[in-house]
Design a protein that fits this description.
Layout: E1 6-11, H1 19-29, E2 33-38, H2 48-55, H3 66-71, H4 74-79, E3 83-89, H5 91-99, H6 105-112, E4 117-121, H7 125-129, H8 131-142, E5 146-147, E6 151-154, E7 160-164, H9 168-179, E8 188-193, E9 198-199, E10 205-206, H10 213-224, E11 228-233, E12 245-248, H11 252-262, E13 267-270, E14 277-279, E15 299-301, H12 305-310, E16 318-325, H13 329-340, E17 344-349, E18 361-362, E19 364-368, E20 371-374, E21 378-379, H14 380-395
Parallel strand pairs: 1-2, 1-3, 3-4, 4-5, 8-11, 8-13, 11-12, 13-16, 16-17
Antiparallel strand pairs: 6-7, 9-10, 14-15, 17-19, 18-21, 19-20
The structure holds cytidine-5'-triphosphate.
Length: 396
């Protein structure tokens, strides 16, 4: 995924520095070369020796280390990588970066570089929420610095809330997204996901049981192959992946608007369970019980987003739909492929006995114009990875 990429990893002085050992391992497994830089405070939490052993490279620590400067100047060091990552980014480090300070090797590299920067903040929750830190965060974002996390949870200091550094796998995904590495580098892919909510009145709506898990997994897998992913999601229970361009919508018509606004794209994957109908006579006020009995709802057909995009003036080169069937899965899916004008249909049997709807696994058939492939039952994230690889092949 990151073969041929070099990442300078600046390890800041926080308890989360220990997670960088795993991050280095994961980066190297993904094919990246890692240049580690430790701040003075970082050495209180991890040793240069363990970092060097895992990175398989020299650790840089001091601005005025003559040996390093003789071999490689700090300017060169700041530019030899494809990306600079600061993990953990402490409140102090963020303040220095936002203010443009350069009083040690790490901050000098960050100021001298012409490469993109990604930070993974980690600190006590009060420090994170402090107006000064939020001000610095806004400044860094405005300067084009990418930010991953922090996560919420139990903190080493005994408090609970946002401030934990993101897990190494999430940082790795954000690095891949920032580097646009992998076979889908330079490609823009649109993914719809989740259910839609169609209002009856301001407090009631029509929905379905889609969790959005398969769509989120597909978006993450495409991102991990280097695509720029535009993720248009209804109100799903599964969290949206990190490192995608996120558009949250409620209704089918809002989803269509967001999808059309996101075009052009190289591929579009329609994993959303869009409500076929909306309530045409939805009420602006909460419906009240009356002595005249139950309200009469009038339904109107929603636009078919997949069919609209498949026939669009700026149609993506690859349009993929989903078909959830309970009988004659292949025949129904093949008819759907022709009817909607898409290139592929990912079909599955969602009969209750299969346990697929709401479950962690899926068994799908990939229907193309050339035939049908039956994929074995596997976890949804593996279905997503396999589909993402097929999409990468198709767009090559
Ligand atoms: N779809 C869409 N917009 C809609 C309805 C569906 O984009 N208004 C997409 C879905 O995201 C999915 C595919 O079309 O990719 C599913 O087609 P659909 O006609 O909804 O089929 P099923 O839900 O499987 O049900 P049925 O065949 O019973 O209509």
């Amino acid at each position: 995924m990151l073969a041929g990429k070099r990442v300078t990893l600046i390890i800041g002085g926080g308890i989360a520095a220990y997670k960088c050992l795993d991050l280095i391992r994961q980066l190297r497994r993904a094919g990246a070369q890692v240049t580690p830089v430790l701040t003075r405070a970082a050495t209180e939490f991890v040793t240069p020796l363990s970092i060097a052993a895992l990175a398989g490279e020299q650790v840089y620590q001091h601005l005025f280390d003559l040996k390093d400067e003789a071999e490689m100047g700090h300017i060169q060091l700041s530019r030899q990588s494809d990306l600079l990552v600061v993990a953990p980014a402490t409140a102090n480090m963020m303040a220095k970066m936002a203010g443009g300070l350069a009083d040690d090797l790490a901050t000098t590299l960050l100021l001298a570089t012409d490469k993109p920067i990604l930070i993974a903040p980690a600190m006590n929750l009060r420090m994170w929420e402090h107006p000064a830190t939020q001000r610095n965060l806004a400044q860094l974002r405005a300067d084009g610095v990418g930010v991953i996390g922090p996560d919420s949870g139990d903190m080493a200091c005994g408090e609970f809330g946002p401030g934990r550094m993101s897990e190494p796998h999430a940082i790795l995904a954000a690095i891949a997204a920032k580097l646009r590495a992998g076979p889908l580098a330079g490609k823009r892919v649109l993914v719809t996901s989740g259910p839609t909510h169609e209002p009856i009145d301001p407090v009631r709506y029509i929905a379905n049981r889609s969790s959005g898990a398969q769509g989120a997994a597909i978006a993450a897998a495409l991102r991990d192959l280097g695509a720029e992913v535009v993720f248009v999601t209804g109100p799903a229970t599964a969290p949206a992946p990190e490192g995608v361009v996120l558009h949250k919508v409620e209704t089918a018509r809002e989803m269509l608007d967001a999808v059309e606004a996101a075009l052009p794209a190289d591929a579009a994957i329609f994993a959303a369970a869009v409500a076929d109908w909306r309530v045409e006579n939805s009420s602006h006020q909460k419906l009240k019980k009356t002595k005249h009995g139950a309200p009469e709802l009038i339904f109107a057909q929603n636009p078919d987003i997949l069919a609209t995009v498949a026939a669009h003036a700026v149609r993506p080169a690859l349009v993929v739909g989903f078909a959830a069937e309970t009988e004659q899965v292949i025949a129904h899916a093949q008819a759907k492929l022709a009817r909607k004008g898409c290139d592929w249909i990912v079909a599955n049997d969602v009969s209750p006995a299969t346990g697929i709807m709401g479950g962690a696994e899926n068994a799908v058939h990939l229907i193309t114009r050339d035939g049908v492939e039956d994929w074995p039952r596997m976890p949804k994230h593996e279905v997503a990875q396999r589909l993402a690889l097929r999409i990468a092949e198709a767009l090559r």
